[in-house]
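INFO  loader      accepted 1 record
INFO  loader      residues=173
INFO  predictor   begin
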Amino acid sequence: MNMTVNGSAVEMPRDPRVSLLDYLRDHLHLTGTKKGCDQGACGACTVLVDGQRILSCLSLAVQLQGRSVTTIEGVGQPGHLHPLQQAFVDHDGFQCGYCTPGQICSVLGMVAEIGRGVPSHLTLDLEAESIALTPGELRERMSGNLCRCGAYNGIVAAIAETYVEGPLPEAVE
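INFO  predictor   done
INFO  writer      dumping tokens
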């Protein structure tokens, strides 16, 4: 059985001990997914599996038989960026760019979670039909993705431009 990576079927690794991160980078040569801490603490390796965000350093590739993996290479194309990628550029949502692929994949997963009504720690009304993407809610949901350069304001602005109508109100925290 195979898995699908960015829309293409790929064979499963022969070694069942290979992490998804190492399989993507070393075997499939998809180096957009970054190896940060290799312990699941920084989010640099975030990819989407069947639309849900996961840390690829903590997942074995063989666990994903029959599933669909999307890496940053599957999100947009040179000359035709995904709107979120363009917003990251427009708002300086990156400096060194190392965390950016994981940040973008995490945002896409976060938006899908909100669409499914998955609450966060800060979601006040668990019975609400929709969850507002407030500054606090956004920051809480993205807290697993670290930016070593501190480009958080640009990241938040890029997310707000892409997924919130108008600028986010100032956080009262």
